[in-house]
Write a structure and sequence with these properties.
This is Stage 0 sporulation protein A homolog. The protein is an alpha/beta fold. The chain has eight helices and 13 strands. Helix 6 crosses helix 8. The two termini are 27 Å apart.
């Protein structure tokens, strides 16, 4: 999985490159608009991570250049969470944005989410021609970000999940057999405005998710509580 990284801050870029390569990604790094456009012409990339403020221009220009060439997923790195900056980036075709300073775990989770939405897989994730993940009678169509539940009659019924409920479900799905503490879940979760979810809100979202996917939410068999430790999905 090839990542195109555009970041002019050497400290940030070195840390990102190291972390991404540790996760199994192949990283190409550029520091300015001129080099980025030249490099992108000569290579193929699965996802692009673009800083906005650059010495010879901005990430918006590079995003336009990339999207005109091919439909590659783009995540913006921005020092400002001002609504105008976010809206501008999304209108240019960006798939997500993350504000500096950020947590590496948060960025890794967003990369995997964006790749799934584009029909790809993050580094180290198993591939599937059907792009379907199953948890008991729950079917997750990752290419379409669609979730269904198979009833006793064998018929599938679509269920509506919010963006955060869907991310929470994917987190459990990608960590089957592993006890996830509340702190681990909180590190990977954020709401639609980019704010981190607090402990009380996490409790509410887990309850809502159980209400939608469990046959008996009062006795959950998919998302199980491990008393004193967290949650597990087998």
């Amino acid at each position: 999985m090839r990542v195109f990284l555009l970041e002019d801050d050497s400290a940030i870029s070195m840390g990102l490159k190291y972390s991404l390569e540790k996760e199994g990604y192949e990283v190409t790094h550029c520091e300015n608009v001129k080099d980025a456009e030249a490099q992108f012409k000569s290579g193929y990339y699965d996802i692009c991570i673009l800083d906005i403020n650059l010495p010879d221009g901005n990430g918006y220009d590079v995003c336009k250049f990339i999207k005109a060439k091919e439909d590659v997923p783009v995540i913006f790195l921005t020092a400002s969470d001002a609504e105008v900056n976010v809206v501008m980036g999304l209108e240019m075709g960006a798939d997500d944005y993350i504000c500096k300073p950020f947590r590496i775990n948060e960025l890794m989770a967003r990369i995997k989410t964006v790749l799934r939405r584009s029909g790809k897989r993050g580094a180290g994730e198993a591939t599937s021609d059907a792009a379907i993940e199953k948890l008991s009678n729950v079917n997750i169509y990752t290419n379409e970000a669609k979730v269904t539940v198979t009833g006793d009659d064998g018929k599938e019924t679509a269920i509506e999940l919010t963006a955060l409920e869907y991310r929470l479900l994917l987190t459990f799905c990608n960590n089957r057999g592993v006890v996830l503490s509340r702190n681990q879940l909180l590190q990977d979760m954020w709401d639609v405005s980019g704010d981190f979810v607090n402990d009380n809100t996490l409790t509410v979202y887990i309850k809502r998710l159980r209400d939608k996917i469990e046959k008996d939410p009062s006795d959950p068999q998919i998302i199980k509580t491990v008393r004193g430790l967290g949650y597990i999905v087998n």
